[in-house]
Amino acid sequence: GLSQYSSDPRTEWELSAYSTREQVLEAVRNLRYKGGNTFTGLALTHVLEQNLKPDAGARLEAEKLVILLTDGKSQDDANLAAQTLKNLGIEIFAIGVKNADEAELRQVASEPLELTVYNVLDFPLLSSLVGKLTRVLCTRIKERSHKETTDTPVNTGPQLSPTDLKISAVTSKSMHLAWSPPLRPPKKYRVVYYPSKGGTPKEVVLEGAVSSLQLSNLTSHTEYLVSVIPVYDSAAGDGLRGVTSTLPLSSPRSLRVTELSHNSLRLSWKAAQGATHYLVLCSAAPDGAED
């Protein structure tokens, strides 16, 4: 599977899209470059929430590997998102090109770093990594798949997944989330929220006994994507997702002009709810307009 990212991540194809090497290579040849910013944390969250799910082709019994390829320093918190994936047993390989931040690559990648971190000076040099990286990936999959696990993570169904996300009490700066917990209470919940048009994702971690949250300090008149993900010792349940827009800030109303003189005037208006200051702009009317 492949996702490409800048300000907003975009799934190019799911894990279940192609079944042969030739099909994948053809898809790579037809890939169109997506320019823009470098929100690596948002991209890693996208991979977890969108690409590593059964309905996207992720098999429960298969090892989960993420290969991050980046040519710049992340503009959001990549380490927090990466740690979430690693806590769920997902292994991350980090490959940097040109202006990638070596320290950030080492933060994001899984241990042992000598096998999971790579950095080259330019894109043509990536070909020199193919042989080694292929051997390392195959070896890691074999090593991990041979480990005996006493409880196979099952991350679907009401047993492990919350239901019925309700978003209420929406204002210009806040909203309230509530959900019905799964039959088996999780260890924790991850609540991830961010503007749908791109922005730094924020995350709140709650104890598994809690099933509601007040989000505050939001941006007014903005559509937010919200995900509630239950986390167990060895698996993550399916996340609940919702989308809601915060209200616009209220405006002053009924503007009136009084007490006119040759060089002054007085303005009055009905107050805007919640406003702490007003900015008043005044300019001469253009030529020919009414005085």
UniProtKB/TrEMBL annotation:
Ranges of residues in domain VWFA: 1-133
Q: Does the keyword Cell division apply?
A: no
Task: State where the protein is found.
Answer: Secreted, Extracellular space, Extracellular matrix
- Superkingdom of the source species: Eukaryota
The UniProt entry, under SUPFAM superfamilies, shows: Fibronectin type III, vWA-like
Report if keyword Repeat is assigned.
no
> Gene3D superfamilies of this UniProt entry?
Immunoglobulins, von Willebrand factor, type A domain
Fibronectin type-III domain mapped to chain residues? 161-250
Which keywords has UniProt assigned to this entry?
Extracellular matrix, Secreted
Q: Which PANTHER family match?
A: COLLAGEN ALPHA, COLLAGEN ALPHA-1(XX) CHAIN
What protein is this chain from? COKA1 protein
From the UniProt record, report the name of the gene that encodes this protein: Col20a1
